Amino acid sequence: MMETIFVVLIGAVAAVLANRNIAVFNDGLRPIVSEHIEGRLKRRELGLTAFAMSFGLVIGFGIPFTLSASIILIHSILLGTDIIGLIIPKKKWGSIAAALVGGLYGWALISGLEGFVKLFDHLPVNFLEPMGEVGTPVVVTFMAFPALAVAMQFTIKKGILTFAVAAIVRQLAVFVNDKGFLHIGDNVISLNQEGVALIVGMIFLFTFAMREKTEEGSTVDLASIFSDKVKSIKKNVFFFMIIGGLIAGATNLLLMAGDPISLSLLADGKQADAGIAAAARAIGFIPLVASTAIATGVYSPVGFTLIFVVGLFVPNVWLAVIIGALVIFAEVMLLSFIARFLDNYPGVRNSGENIRNAMTKLLEVALLIGGANASNMIAPGFGFFFVAGFYLLNEVAGRPIVRMAVGPVGAILVGIIANILVAMGLMTIPQ
Question: HSE (CB half, 13 Å, CA atoms) of 318?
């Protein structure tokens, strides 16, 4: 009952924030919502744009990951509430309608998830467990994204150097673990090799970024130029505290995760590792979220995503709610300071977009591999054939399905086809 209440409230509050043009989850929607606020875009066009930008990600990205781990990927709910909040007209009754529909959507998501899990038990080919393989490569390859971001921003040579050092550090961590060199008393301490490599990569990325100097006369005082927009965000800080606390609490209950990497780790029971991955992602996304918020006056319902880190490391759900609310309050209050910091270090400011692009490219490759592996577990041989063909045909068709979603969607389609073939007697149940 408590789990359902958390998800319903998150859906309701997030839909209201979108309806009132206060916050949207989709990074690409914030500038568009700002256009509507300033009167250059009609509400109807805004709603249709939100649907076009987010619906495919909900169906092709959020839902497949949610089903693969029985943990709600935050994209599943907040991309949906973006659509709900922006499609419903912003009138006197708009917020009430958005809250009702958003809450209903949250309830349907968590209730439907339980129903889906039970349904799989009755299928000839239960492909829920193989779907877990979709996220397996993501966990291992995630440590490479800082090197890719460095290569995209600071030359390929520096990217290769970052990658090589991270790889060496990872193998040193494996060696230390195998030999049991680290221990407290009689307890051997095991390092997370991917986490160690990720930290090293992030150190390289931010070292290069902070060494990038501002050209003469090129500095821009973001905080001063967009002071009114920063004020509008601060004015709504109470709403952010509510949803921040709710999401931190839901994460603490292991109901949801903020990204595919931490979701996959949680599915494997590695909560501490999931927290480290979530922290690395949050640090990397601060420049992007801060810059778009300051420039548009529209925030993110998850802030800098640090609330997921709170949820994963705080031992008690109600403590997580309180700390999550305080963390997002501090983020909002520090926006002006962060803007001035980004002005002083343009390399750090510019790294936000490169980090996002690097993560996207890495996830495209990792999820394609994971989707192919999952598909082949469901239907040996046919799975590889189908996902490869599905990917290539999607490319030729102009990518109607985003690359990141091809692997997970392909695995689901293979599972459906496998059940049909078994029912028709054209395929034996894989052992």
Answer: 1
pLDDT, block means (10 residues), the chain with 431 residues: 91 95 84 80 80 71 76 90 91 89 92 71 79 72 83 91 92 84 62 75 82 55 62 91 95 90 84 84 73 78 92 93 95 81 66 71 84 90 94 92 79 90 83 65
CA dihedral of residues 367, 57, 267, 177 (deg, nearest 10): 40
CA 242 from chain center: how many Å?
20
Encode 129-165: b = buried (16+ Cβ within 10 Å), e = exposed: ebbbbbbbbbbbbbbbbbbbbbbbbbeeebbebbbeb
Q: Nearest 5°: phi and psi at 73?
A: -75, 130
Q: pTM, whole model, 2 decimals?
A: 0.68
Helices (H), 184-316: 193-211, 222-225, 227-235, 237-252, 260-267, 271-296, 306-313
What are the sequence ranges of the domains in the chain? 2-126+218-344, 129-212+347-423
Integer Cα distance of 408 and 420 in angstroms: 19
